[in-house]
Specification:
By secondary structure, this protein is an alpha/beta fold. Helices cover 27% and strands 30% of the residues. The chain has helices at 22-32, 47-56, 73-78, 97-101, 115-132, 185-189, 230-240; strands at 13-18, 38-44, 61-64, 86-91, 107-110, 143-148, 151-156, 162-166, 169-173, 178-182, 197-201, 204-207, 213-215, 218-221, 224-227. The longest helix is centred in the middle third of the chain and has 18 residues, at 115-132.
Length: 243
């Protein structure tokens, strides 16, 4: 069985603060320093700045005001779609709580924010992140869990053909299905069994048992072509035990 071994206190989460009030931004920034596992990536005054940072950084937790000029916090979240960070709303108005929780956010904090209430929300976010984030650790298992459109989905390792890095995401290819996981390829590689999965390119990891053919610097895997970089070819040939 998959064991949830990772200590929540050891999780590193990239955070983004979005609030149009300077005092609120400073307060939340200060509170983030309480937890060493929280890394503040950027502080934004509005949704436009937030979208820009979300496009170029891997953000795990969004600490978000609601009433802002232009695009509100609720509108911002609706515009993010399914592949979004965890959300904690921080607002001076309790009336927004129901609408906020309808968006399946982690928590809703009312201003002024106290350290105890802030840590309560952060611990909830860390627990969710620990369970549903990326691929969970255990090299001996024959399956992994991924977060897929709000669901935690089980994938059998022997059904995965290959993985491809796509910016801040990694695409996981099965025969007829494809999934996108917000992660780096290196992070996922560390969680996969090395006897089965091998990197063949800076952007590709393959399941050796799912290779159909190899010609030159190209693998064919269920009608798809995967490039082999010269730096990885010798290692791949040795691992394939070619007769």
């Amino acid at each position: 069985m998959l064991s949830f071994i990772r200590d929540a206190n050891l999780i590193d989460m990239n955070c983004l603060i979005v609030d149009d009030h300077e005092i609120a931004r400073r307060t939340v920034s200060h509170l983030l320093q309480i937890e060493q596992s929280l890394k503040l990536i950027a502080v934004c005054e509005n949704a436009t700045e937030a979208y820009r940072n979300l496009a170029i950084h891997k953000i795990d937790l969004l600490l978000l005001d609601i009433e802002m000029p232009g695009i509100s916090g609720i509108e911002l979240v609706k515009g993010l779609g399914e592949t979004r960070p965890l959300i904690i709303f921080i607002s001076a108005k309790k009336d927004y709580a129901a609408a906020a929780f309808d968006l399946n956010v982690v928590d809703f904090i009312t201003k002024p924010v106290t350290p105890d209430r802030f840590l309560m929300a952060i611990n909830k976010a860390k627990e969710i992140y620990n369970v549903s984030n990326l691929l969970l650790d255990n090299r001996q298992d024959d399956f992994v869990f991924i977060r897929d459109a709000g669901l935690i989905r089980r994938l059998n390792l022997d059904e995965i053909n290959y993985l491809e890095a796509k910016g801040d995401y990694v695409k996981i290819y099965q025969n007829e299905k494809t999934y996108a996981v917000r992660s780096s390829l290196k992070s996922i590689e560390e969680k996969l069994p090395g006897k089965t999965f091998i990197r063949v390119h800076r952007s590709f990891i393959v399941n050796i048992g799912r290779i159909d053919t190899m010609e030159g610097n190209t693998l064919v895997m269920h009608k798809n072509f995967v490039p082999i970089a010269d730096a990885y070819k010798t290692i791949l040939n040795n691992r394939m035990q070619i007769l």
